[in-house]
Fold this sequence. Notes:
The complex is a heterodimer. In chain A, 39% of the residues are buried. Chain A has 14 helices and 2 strands, in the order αββααααααααααααα. Helix content of chain A is 69%, strand content 1%. Chain A has a two-stranded antiparallel sheet with strand order 1-2. Chain A is globular. The longest helix of chain B is centred in the N-terminal third of the chain and has 32 residues, at 43-74. The two termini of chain B are 34 Å apart.
Amino acid sequence: MLYPLASSLYHAFTKWDGLSPAKWDGLNNFRYMFFQDPTFWPSLRATAYFVLLSVPSGMIFGLALAVLLNRALTGVRIFRTIFYLPVVLPSIAVLTLWKYIYDPLYGLANEVLTRLGLPTSQWLQSPDMAMPSIVIVGIWGVGGSMIIFLAGLQNVPVELYEAARTDGAGPVRTFFSITLPMITPILLLQLILGLVLAFQAFNQIQVLTNGGPGTSTLLFMYKIYNDAFGSYPNLGLATAEAWILFVVIMIITGVALKTSSMWVFEENQ
Amino acid sequence: MPVLWMISIALKPDSDILQLPPQFLPRTFQWSNFVNGPKEVNFYHLLGNTIVITVLSVFGAVTSSMLAGYAIARINFRGRSFWFYLFTFSIFVPGIVTLIPIQRLFFSLHLVDTWFPLFVPAFLGNPVFIFLARQYFMSVPRSIDESAMIDGAGHWKIFTRLMIPLTKPLWITMTIMSFQAVWNDFLNPLVYLNSTQKYTLSLGMASFMGNLNQGSPEYNYYMASNLLYMLPPLLLFFFAQRYFMMGLGSLAITNK
């Protein structure tokens, strides 16, 4: 664990193609990245867009589903299972399936839109729609966060709901005054897990778009992979980029944790 | 819903795949896709590869993490909390930071394009599992191993005779989680394997799909094989559903 970390830190400052030995190169990797690499800033932009789109939507859909399925209705277990299933399936199987669904000619997505009388889309092949299409696949697999939210919802004391009902609070009011504050620790956990996973998203890109069209879905993680193991390996640059990713994740989760005391409800306060 | 469509493609005859606009239901059911499809993608060979790698990795990850978790929770030794914090910290390090040096390490050992890089790291423990195991072992009452020690049992005996039966939900959860992780793993095989003979299912399926042309009639073969690839995790899920939920629930609670 320590060896690869130390080795990777050292190599971030070297010129290294993986064949000849690494040569000390000072800050050149970072200089190249920030000022010369034509795909560095576009890929950061794509990553920010992806994170801002996928993390909140995943949390909102996950929580909404959990609230809907947290009732004692008949068949609720079956629905929980159905929504959880996509999480169990191998991501490659799921992603290749979605790639076919998004096929503009033979895919299901456009067929459904046509039947509903809506305009069709080029999906993954359109620079504007490619990223939203990838996020939709993620939302389809929202069952994982649903289960964690369910576990959280089941820990909310029933007395609180009873008290709210006797005070005459409606379902919306109850949700915002009781449920939401009581599950803020779970929200924080989900936010951090979601951020860490979103910054490292890779399979989607490799299977669905290869970063294209243009740089519209060139997530940073995919760029690092390409720089390290693609046709022109530049391992020094790739390790430097990996450290940038690490620092960005650290800063953002750090900010989330630091500000959490303002909105996370602690039981022992 | 997308999965239903997948089943439908898997059953369609070739002519239906090329039909425009696509129909939801196949006109005739071509069950033979489930026989010919796997042959086409070399499914059973890849399945064998995947099973070998999965069994070794799951065994490695579960045993080593159980042992490390036990040691950190139950044995007093120097640097105990240092190891604990190291493992916890490493959960947050993005995989790609360490992937590059580890890949070079295996490269210099001439182990790239073998299965070793895919299961050897599992034997070094999985930080998330070690964290979970430590939490779990901490919750087992101390008096149990104290009385065993008085009866003359050492740590090894306590671990194998007492802890393993007591922590059944823990290691079942770990087994399920690591099975899923390895079965679904794509990045590591992609980085380490070059020859198609050694591919895992995830890699084989992705590359076969990548080679298909738009609306190729072979999609029915592909989807039939893809369904077979999904089957083991699905069966596991249905048999171990209780533990699945428990494992995820414990993740939510330990992190509170």
